Amino acid sequence: MVVFSFIQPYLITLAVAGTAAVIFHPVHTRLVRLLRGRKTIAAFFMIILTYILVLIPLIVLGIQIATEASGMYADLRSGTQANILTDFLQTLESMLQQYIPSVSIDISNISQYAGQALNVLAGSLQTFFAGTVHAIFLTFLGTIAYFYMLRDGTNFIDYIIRISPLTKEEDVKLFDRLHQAVNSVVRGSLIIAVLQGTVTGIGLMIFGVPSAVLLGSIAGVGSMIPTIGTTIVLAPVIAYLFISGDYVSGIGLSIWGALAVGMIDNLLQPLLVGRGMRMHPLFTFLAVIGGISYFGVSGIILGPLLISLLFGLLDIFLEETEAT
Questions:
Q1: What pLDDT digit, counting tens, does each position of 283-315 carry?
Q2: How far apart are CA 268 and CA 260, in angstroms?
Q3: Which of 30, 32, 58, 221 has its CA 20 to 30 A from that of 282?
Q4: Over the chain, what is the mean pLDDT?
């Protein structure tokens, strides 16, 4: 109990490091072969590669999102600059009143709620980056854990199987379930979300929509919601462009969304997610949302892993019940 109490504050960091080790395990295995069995050197190179490809871009993206969210929040509060949300709502209200005079959209309340959401988002990101010493320590701890999990991961798994009260077959089934969850959520859904968010943001930049990085990030999160996807951003932005009279940009962004964003969803998703976690998209979505609300950003990974572990244990329980 005492050991768990002083490890507990770092469990999320260790879980994220373990997930990263599972994701990049195939690459590490190839590096080990190229380096003739030198696991330590291969793990060291994997750390450098992960920093370059994942960690540094995420930090840059987080800073940009916080900057754009703060700027949009300031615009909403001051009202001194034209704001896409306010302009859109005012134009929409005018159009609707031509047919239904009694229609009224409470722009002030909507702008207030949107501003509060932007303020929470910007504040959360700024708080994370402001806690420099703590963030550096967690990054260092995660890097060390990531290194050893890459190098000695199979030994750790073998030891867990040996001390587990479950049978070896049941432990193997659980680890297989977690492995499928990582493949589906991280290699599948998250990669799709990153690609769709990036492509959406590029399209918004091309057609002159402000705060493209922030809106692209929201579109990426939206792409993880079943049946909604990037339309959570593209639909209102395209509607605003048409309502404001910018038909060329509206048509262009519509084509961009249908071709560029749609092709990613239709072509890559079956390849990346098709053989992933055996879980209904609704449960995946609830796991992501619940994970984020409980663990923060890390919940995008930890939520589905915990749900997958639960379903794995339920499967074992059902099999044992049916066998008796």
A1: 767 777 787 777 766 677 777 777 777 776 777
A2: 12
A3: 58
A4: 74
Task: Tell me the CB-side half-sphere exposure of residue 121, using CA atoms within 13 A.
Answer: 22
- Own/partner pairs, 37-46, CB within 8 angstroms, 24+ separation: 39/150, 39/151, 40/151, 42/150, 42/151, 43/147, 43/148, 43/150, 43/151, 44/147, 46/146, 46/150
Tokens of 151: 């190098």
Buried b (16+ CB within 10 A) or exposed e, 18-43: bbbbbbbbeebeebbeeeeeebeebb
The answer to whether the beta carbons of residues 311 and 319 sit under 8 Å apart is no
DSSP sequence for 7-48 = HGGGHHHHHHHHHHHHHTHHHHHHHHHHTTT-HHHHHHHHHH
Give the torsion sign (CA, 64, 234, 294, 308).
negative
Tell me the pLDDT tens digit for each residue of 204-258: 889 888 778 888 888 887 777 666 778 878 888 888 788 777 889 889 999 998 8
For residues 220 and 193, what is the distance between their CA atoms, to the nearest angstrom? Answer: 4
Helix (DSSP H) and strand (DSSP E) numbers for the chain: 17, 0
Best CA proximity match to 177, nearest among 22, 21, 282, 25: 22
pTM: 0.67
Structure tokens at 315: 């499967």
Q: Which residues contact 300 (CB under 8 A, 6 or more apart)?
A: 185, 190, 288, 291, 292
